[in-house]
Design brief:
By secondary structure, this protein is of the alpha/beta class. It is built from 5 helices and 10 strands. The longest helix is centred in the middle third of the chain and has 13 residues.
Length: 195
């Protein structure tokens, strides 16, 4: 794994050896950052199911002001810390170890919000709607926010829900990125499954 662009460009990151993680491939990462690049400078990014930290570190490399990493695994948290150290990152981030739903609710109670929220749950994950309902329901995502979920193409994600809608799907082989945002106008409760 390597950092693709920005001030840490070319830095090789430690991979998830002995840790049950699935790193985002370079092609999918490039597609993701082609979408995110204009939004990153000076912004706050939330990286949930952060794994090795590669996505959040790429965001920092490209000018994000702050990245909040959320990860439940102690081994993965150590990997994130090691990769931040490899890039010489000593500030501009928070690493929160904890179960995703509880941690996201806690961030919401703090009044935290992020311009970009990236989620890469395990591919056998099912409660996507619950995850999106929390993110949009507790105010982590605002009108200008973009929420992106990496998932297997066979996964069923909601096309819309209370206060959010899917705006785009990017497919690469068996992997997909589903992009969500707050729709213009009054909230819509349509929850048609898709993907």
């Amino acid at each position: 794994m390597r950092v693709i662009a920005g001030k840490f460009k070319g830095r090789r990151l430690k991979g998830p050896r002995g840790v049950q993680l699935r790193p985002t491939g370079d092609r999918l990462k490039e597609a993701l950052f082609n979408i995110l690049a204009p939004r990153l400078p000076g912004s706050v990014v939330l990286d949930v199911f952060a794994g090795s930290g590669a996505i959040g570190i790429e965001a920092l490399s490209r000018g994000a002001r702050e990245v909040v990493f959320v990860e439940t695994s102690a081994a993965a948290c150590r990997l994130i810390e090691a990769n931040l150290a490899l890039c010489g990152v000593t500030s501009g981030y928070r690493l929160l170890r904890g179960e995703a739903f509880r941690t996201l609710r806690g961030l919401g109670r703090q009044g935290f919000s992020a311009r970009t929220i990236y989620l890469d749950p395990p591919y056998d994950w099912e409660p996507y709607k619950d995850l999106l309902d929390i993110i949009f329901g507790v105010g982590l995502a605002e009108e200008e926010s973009s929420v992106i979920i990496e998932h297997h193409r066979a996964a069923r994600l909601p096309a819309a829900g209370a206060g959010y809608r899917r705006t785009r799907i990017i497919r690469q082989g068996d992997k997909c990125l589903s992009c969500y945002s707050v729709p213009p106008g009054p909230p819509d409760g349509d929850e048609t499954p898709g993907a």
